[in-house]
Here is the input.
Amino acid sequence: MIFFLSFILFLIGLYCVLIKKNLLKMVMGIVIMEYSVSLFLILLGYKKGGFPPIVTAGVEGTNFVDPLPQALVITAIVISIASLALIISLCMRIYQKYKTFDITKIRKLKG
Amino acid sequence: MFELYSLVILMIVGSLVAIHTKYLLSAVISLSLVGLILCVVFLYLQAPDTAITQTIVEVIALVILIRAVPIKKDTMGIKGAKETFSAIVTTIFLVLFAFFAYKALLDLPQFGFPLMTVSEGYIRDGLVKTGSANIVTAVLLDFRAYDTLGEATVLFTAILGAIVVLRKVGRK
Amino acid sequence: MKENKGMTLIVKTVIKFLAPIVILFGIYMILHGHLTPGGGFPGGVVIASAFILLTLAYGKEVAEKKMKRSLASLLESTGALFFLILAVLGIFIGGWFFSNFLPKGEPLKLLSAGFIPLANIAIGLKVGGGIFAVFLALVIFRIAGEGGEEQK
Here is the structure.
């Protein structure tokens, strides 16, 4: 059920990307989708009663949560900030050229 | 479990506010609220590395998004019959998508009992084979260093692209 | 002249004391990446965020004097190259790509885990330099025909 809640978050982001006409709102939708995907991956790796996957001195046992999704999600988060900067720079160039963020008006000015 | 559900529902409410408010600055702030709740969720799910990364990246994303908000108000609502129609069609599509996804998500392993076929080996041999006490770092930089190399390439390309798009001096 | 740029005196004074501590925390996070939560990715972003803090408080001229964009790009490329050299050295010494060729050492000590601390340093340089370079590019960019962004 908790998986489905994270999927609802993904659908909210998708709705924002499909419906909104403001470029910045679409960027926010993409960011929400990124959040939901990283949340979903970490939820998949959670083990009931598990500990963080770090060996500490004096503590025996390997009852750890899954370290693999965590490692993948760290890289995904850092990629997301770089891609966000790329998207934002493209949006600023578009704003400089057309003086608007409305995608319907940008389409009309094409040619 | 109750804490986890309430935090995720708070995230959903925050994202709904972010996409429906008229003021872009409020939208950006609601979005970063969603990200910061995500950090707390990561901590609850025993993922401290990811929580640290998400916190710092969230703050920088907030700064970058605020940099890009030149207008205060978003006046582009849904108007006209055509746009209303497309909004209704999109909503129907998303509801169908959610229905089939619910059917599919039932096949996943139950929450709290993951399939750890690959990770068993990493946890068992991580300290002996790599000498790293932090198993996440061991996975990141030793067992799956190819992924990190690919990630470094993607990061390099994205940053190069942003700098090229933003540079002042262009080709004549 | 310089006092007029950036934020007020209070913010500047606080950040003057805060920024070195933030950079120190980032270096700690990178060097202890194989023992504690952290590692190259968050450590690099922490160091970049310290410079971002300087940029926001003092204006871009002072921050550019401390860390030029070309220098940040150079650090990023150095980190990527260092990481790749570590990987290729593994072929010649250890036998395969990304083999952990250095001695493992005693677990739970700072000098352990083979080449993982070196790779953490490379990743930290790469991520920190890259994010600060792209932030400077975003700050310097001005939309033509407008004095500031808040005009509209």
About this structure: Residues 45 and 68 of chain A are 8 Å apart (CA to CA). Chain A touches chain B through 75 residues (CB under 8 Å). DSSP finds four helices and no strands in chain A. Residues 67-98 of chain A form the longest helix (32 residues).
